[in-house]
Amino acid sequence: MAQVTTVVLGRGRRGMSGLDVLLGVLLLGAVTFAFKLVGPLAAGKLTLSPAVTRIAELLPTALIAGLVVTQTFDGAAMDAKVLGVLAATLAVALRAPFAVVVLIGAASAALLRAVGLP
Questions:
Q1: Is the pLDDT of residue 1 over 60?
Q2: Could you tell me which of 33, 53, 30 has the C-alpha nearest to residue 43?
Q3: Can you list the positions of beta strands (E) in the chain?
Q4: Which of 10, 68, 71, 99 has the most crowded Cβ, counting Cβ within 10 A?
Q5: What does each C-alpha distance from 32 to 3, 26, 27, 36, 83 come to in angstroms?
Q6: Where are the domains of the chain?
């Protein structure tokens, strides 16, 4: 059977050294800082259409909803996590403050787990 070796940054060795990891983290930090710097600099010079502005306003809500759905309904049957989200959804429908919504969701899931629901 042939042995497979990993080639990282053009060197025939396995894994990455601490220096490689440090340089990668520093590069990632510099690129992230540059992206964050470009936003405020371009904000005054860039005008968006009303449709694009509306989409940009709704995008964070859609992303968070997608994350909640994928983390809640992970293929398991009805469990405490799903019922906790349903309890929190009911609190939102009743216009409870955000902190109360979070507490209701967490407390209901914790209580259901305490009584043996997975």
A1: no
A2: 53
A3: none
A4: 68
A5: 37, 10, 9, 6, 38
A6: 1-46, 48-72, 77-118
